[in-house]
Design a protein that fits this description.
single chain, six-stranded mixed sheet, 158 residues, alpha/beta
Length: 158
Amino acid sequence: MAGIRYVRGDATVPSVKGIKVIAHVCNDIGGWGKGFVLALSRRRPEPEAAYRAWHRDRAANDFGLGAVQLVQVERYVWVANMIGRRGVRTGSKGVPVRYEAIDTALDRLAGHARELGASVHMPRIGCGLAGGTWSRVEPLVEERLVRRGIPVTVHDHD
């Protein structure tokens, strides 16, 4: 079993064959406009539109911490909007990242990836604006995805 593959490059355009899921962490208040999502939206409008509709209709769906929304953007490319942040700002309750929500979302993502036969591609989720540390997120990715045989590539942007 291989571990996480680390590459330099843009996670919005994974350059491997086969079905791919681009995974990233979103907040739980409907905000979309800073960080990785800007790069994502420059290439594909569908994930943002789907996320905003998901949030808008949250009273009637599963929107909330730990939830995952899969959005197909090309024949072989999906985007996983994963709710893993409480709000958007660091405050009295600490940083926005919620590791338990990321863990739950990764567990759900694993089921989708296996069903699709997909590899998963991501930036260092939860570690940018969310304020998390990779030393806490990496073991979750290993446990939920890699140990289940799902190929994972982490893209570090230049």
